[in-house]
Amino acid sequence: MLTSAVKARVSGLGFWYGNVRALHGLDMEIRDRKVTALIGPSGCGKSTFLRCFNRMHDLTPHTRYEGSIRLYPDDIDLVAKAVDPIEVRMRIGMVFQKPNPFPKSIFENVAYGLRVRGARSRALIEEQVEKALRDAALWDEVKDRLHGPGLSLSGGQQQRLCIARALATDPEMLLFDEPTSALDPIATARIEELITALRERVTVLIVTHNMQQAARVSDFTAFMYLGELVEFDATSKLFTNPGRKATEDYITGRYG
Amino acid sequence: MIEALLLLAGLVAVFTTLSIVWILVTEALPFFRRVPLGDFLTDTMWTPLFAEPRYGILPLLAGTLVTTAVALTVAIPAGTIIAIHLSEFASRRLREVVKPALEMLGAVPTVVYGYFALAIVTPFLQKLIPGLPGFNMLSAGLVIGIMIVPYVASVSEDAMRAVPTHMREGSYAMGATRLQTALRVVVPGALSGMAAAYILGISRAVGETMVVAVAAGLQPNLTWDPTESAATITSFIVQVTLGDLPHDSIGYQSIFAAGLVLLIVTLAFNVAGFLLARRFREAY
Ligand SMILES: Nc1ncnc2c1ncn2[C@@H]1O[C@H](COP(=O)(O)OP(=O)(O)OP(=O)(O)O)[C@@H](O)[C@H]1O
Ligand SMILES: [Mg+2]
Hints:
A: Rossmann fold, B: mainly alpha, MetI-like fold, binds magnesium ion
């Protein structure tokens, strides 16, 4: 069950905010159509690492990548200068900590990626929007108000709308940065179910502060500390039998 | 203490506004006792200072609306484009230079703009449009437009910068370019603030006095053609105020009737803008 193709290989990945080094030579493999969780104390670089995968850092001046993240099967280096960040973001979707629907209708929120990609056919867009909303387990709640504003939904619904928005363009990989930290337990449970179901079709990378959540939804877990990757293993192994003392301290709550 | 001061400041503003309305209405009443409202609204001539006076507001209203329309065709596109550029594309350094410069442009006395229209823009336009009169609404309107660009740009830019970063990030993460993000996410998110910017611009254009008085001519003229010369409500008022008409003459009283129309036009644009903004308002 834990063996599957490699979707992405991170080698010697470093990252700089100006003169501040936030990531130190990370190496790991992301398995295809599995959920990989990133855990670690606040400020250890989880978000920074995640945002390398879709080149979000390119929007911040004076930042720099080192090393490589090779995406398979095409074997392109996601962080190479020669690779267009927009190309990368077309293939790798992202869901943020705070739900961030656009000031548009529910329908137009989900159709956004298709329109940005130049889709014109109304029928095709409608079909993709409905499919994405079904996949994000939101269709039944919004099918009668598709043209109402996305910002009128509840927090949990907004986050599922953002997931639908990311799914509508059929990404190969989805990045989640603490997607439930602004949600109540019931809304959180629904997002977790959704992530578990998504594993069938897309590779998931999720940052979480919640150890139970990592244990519940992920197949693999990486523990980071001070910009370094301390331990990376199958979730079942890492949580029951961690190889490093620092990991054990963190997951048992003895850290800090 | 602070609250009391703020309340006082608010009351002063409200009191001033109410007094203006009160003065306009009470001073305009004697005028309307002598001129029927129907004539005022439908007569096509405005010649209160002539031996056989006519009191139709339409020529002045047309002059105001034409110069305002010309001004807006400059100010809204230019102001919006500048705002989008400053908010979404410019580096912080450029923004820090351009914004104060824009705001300084707004502080230039408007009579300077008036002579700019008369001495520079009109001769230039006369080369492009043969037969253009020396006083014309096109030149005045264009210069009013240039004059209010800083207002429109500055207020629109504030509205765009108020759109939260995480919303832009959501757009970039979908593979959108900077321009797509600006036009499809930031502008819709800033629409109510931008509507306020446009209303501010319209109010300034409707109320602008010196530029039209200097460059558009003072002859009331019922026309929708911007290349003609025409007086506006404001330029008529300033013309009468500067003259030596006795205060109880109907000519003098007519400026209050004209002022009342100006107030109503401005108010109408503001209400329309408010309703539009509410219609499109987005909360984050
Ligand atoms: N724009 C930035 N400029 C400079 N330093 C930054 C910037 N963003 C983050 N950092 C620094 O990089 C380090 C890693 O930050 P990052 O946000 O990746 O941590 P994190 O693990 O996601 O933390 P959290 O769990 O609190 O979200 C921190 O020390 C942080 O202060
Ligand atoms: Mg983070």
